[in-house]
Amino acid sequence: MIEVLDALDYLGVFVFALSGALLASRKDMDLFGFIVLALMPAIGGGTIRDIVLDVPVFWIEDKNYLLLTLMAAVLTFFGCRQIERATRPLVWLDAVGLSVFCVLGAAKTLHITGDAVVAVVMGVVSAVAGGIIRDVIANDPPMVLRSEIYATAAFLGALVYGGFVSLGWPLAEWAGVLAALAARGSGILLGWSLPRSSGS
Fold first, then answer.
1. Which residue ranges make up each domain of the chain?
2. Phi, psi torsion values for 148, nearest 5 degrees
3. pLDDT in tens, 154-164
């Protein structure tokens, strides 16, 4: 079970890196720009989490995360037109990455701190902070501040995971992943979003 989540974690890093590199393509950046914007969503959130928790940063311990990110950046630099055509599948792969990141981030935090509330917060940070940094660098409105459900899905996934663990229920990781994926999927398929201020 954990091995499958680890594999999905690598997939999530790769897809998040693609999302950053595609944004670099739209901004007409050079190869260095592609690499920078690929790195931000792929490893940014997890890096912040590990620094805050004062533990070894995950990609320093496992260089495969960096290799996957660089591979995605270079692949997009030379094949951005072909990758752009696969936008729909990439949106769903991004949703899987978001769902896995929020749960694995929460799980790591809970293991270190033993605090479910902190685990939920850091699960969200793991999933969305890197994307915020990517969008700020690219001078785009951060995706988490747009109407479509995104950060909310990460929060729900981390919350469900934490709830299952607190209650001693099995399959907590998968419950969290599925909850986040269902929430994000509703945003993709149905355009669901949180209510906005009546003054907007």
1. 2-187
2. -65, 145
3. 999 999 999 99
